[in-house]
Design a protein that fits this description.
By secondary structure, this protein is an alpha/beta fold. The chain has a single domain (2-142), classed as Metalloproteases ("zincins"), catalytic domain (Collagenase (Catalytic Domain)). Helix content is 52%, strand content 19%. The chain is built from five helices and four strands. Strands 1-2-4-3 form a four-stranded mixed β-sheet, with helices on both faces. The longest helix has 22 residues, at 121-142.
C-alpha cells in the first residue's frame, strides 16, 4: 500500500506522517478494502479552487476534493487534494485544533473512497459519525495520554 503526502504551491509539511499512514492503513484493513496508491496533495485555497472550477465546474472554495483513478473501487487509487487554508479556517470556526481538523479532512477523503456519501442529511450524519470513530481511534493509538 502506497500512501504518500505532497505539497503543491504551499510551504507545508505534514506532522506524524508514519502514524497517519498506519492509521489510514488500519481503517482500510478494518473496512476490508485494499489500496494501491493514495496521494494526499496539500495546497492553498486558490490552487484547489482552480481544480474545483476546471474539473467539477464548481466556483467555490472547498477543503477537499477526492479523485479516484477508476470507478471500480478496488484496489483504491486516488489523488486527494486538501486546502490547508480551508482546514485552518474550519479549525478556527469549529474551535478545534488544526491537527484534529486536518485529520478529520484526511479521513473524510478516505471514507469517500470507501463509499460513504455526504450529500443528504442522513448520509452526512453517518459520515460525521464515521469521522469521529476514526479520529477517536487515531487519538487512542497515536496520542495516548
Amino acid at each position: 500500500m502506497n500512501i504518500s503526502f505532497f505539497s503543491e504551491n504551499i510551504d507545508f509539511q505534514l506532522f506524524n506522517t508514519v502514524s497517519i499512514q498506519k492509521w489510514i492503513e488500519e481503517i482500510l484493513l478494518d473496512s476490508k478494502a485494499t489500496a494501491s496508491t493514495l496521494n494526499f496533495i496539500f495546497c492553498p485555497d486558490d490552487y484547489l479552487l482552480e481544480i474545483n472550477r476546471k474539473y467539477l465546474k464548481h466556483d467555490y472554495y472547498t477543503d477537499i476534493i477526492t479523485f479516484p483513478y477508476r470507478q471500480h473501487p478496488e484496489p483504491l487509487e486516488a489523488d486527494i487534494y486538501i486546502s490547508i487554508d480551508r482546514v485552518k479556517e474550519n479549525a478556527t470556526n469549529l474551535g478545534v485544533s488544526f491537527q484534529d481538523e486536518l485529520l478529520r479532512v484526511i479521513i473524510h477523503g478516505v471514507l469517500h473512497l470507501l463509499g460513504y456519501k455526504d450529500k443528504s442529511p442522513e448520509d452526512l450524519a453517518r459520515m460525521r459519525e464515521m469521522e469521529e470513530q476514526c479520529l477517536q481511534r487515531y487519538r487512542e493509538a497515536f496520542n495516548p495520554g
